[in-house]
């Protein structure tokens, strides 16, 4: 019984970890949030990555302007920091980064999240066309 409770507490604590946000903030990043979710979907659906392996996926979203288009480019990187890792962190980790960094109060374009042998890093940057 205690082992089960300890496991449940560990899983809950892992899913409640905060992302480390960094990089530039941008008050208008909400207009481009689709780029983050697209890159996350490519990683989570295994369409852009092999299951549980180190990889990078990307997404972008363009807002058309008068004469200049503004593009937010997003990369999500997964790195395994130990040989044995706990499965099932991908969804929580990437969702936490997106919700706490670009969608959070700081509106920072980038962030990372590490636990149980996996490191997830999200990098967002603007380009113009």
What's the topology here?
Blueprint: H1 2-15, E1 20-25, H2 34-44, E2 55-63, E3 70-80, H3 90-100, E4 108-115, E5 118-128
Antiparallel strand pairs: 1-4, 2-3, 3-5, 4-5
Helix pairs in contact: 2-3
Overview of this structure, please?
This protein has a single domain (18-128), classed as 2-Layer Sandwich (Killer Toxin P4, Chain A), CATH 3.30.430. Helix 2 packs antiparallel against helix 3 (90-100). By secondary structure, it is of the alpha+beta class. It has a five-stranded antiparallel beta sheet, covered by helices on one side. It has helices at residues 2-15, 34-44, 90-100; strands at residues 20-25, 55-63, 70-80, 108-115, 118-128. The radius of gyration is 16 Å and the shape is globular.
What is the domain tally? 1
State the total count of DSSP E strands.
5
What fraction strand?
A: 25-35%
Rg from C-alpha positions?
Answer: 16 Å
The N- and C-terminal alpha carbons lie at a distance of 60 Å
Gross morphology is globular
Give the topology string: H per helix, E per strand: HEHEEHEE
Q: Give the helix tally.
A: 3
Mean pLDDT, nearest integer?
85
Give the assembly state of these chains. single chain
The biggest sheet amounts to: 5 strands, antiparallel
Give the uncertain stretches in residue-range form. 5-15
Strand order of the largest sheet: 1-4-5-3-2
Architecture, according to CATH? 2-Layer Sandwich
Give the class from helix and strand content and strand pairing. Answer: alpha+beta
CATH topology: Killer Toxin P4, Chain A
What's the CATH first level?
A: Alpha Beta
Helix content estimate: 25-40%
């Amino acid at each position: 019984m205690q082992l089960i409770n300890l496991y449940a507490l560990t899983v809950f604590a892992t899913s409640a970890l905060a992302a480390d946000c960094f990089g530039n903030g941008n008050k208008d990043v909400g207009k481009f949030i689709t780029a983050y979710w697209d890159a996350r979907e490519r990683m989570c659906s295994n369409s852009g990555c092999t299951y549980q392996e180190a990889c990078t996926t990307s997404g972008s979203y363009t807002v058309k302007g008068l004469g200049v288009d503004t593009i937010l480019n997003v990369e999500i990187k997964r790195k395994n920091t130990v040989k044995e890792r706990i499965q099932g962190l991908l969804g929580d980790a990437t969702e936490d980064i997106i919700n706490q960094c670009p969608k959070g109060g700081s509106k920072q374009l980038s962030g990372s999240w590490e636990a149980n042998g996996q490191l997830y890093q999200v990098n967002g940057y603007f380009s113009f066309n």
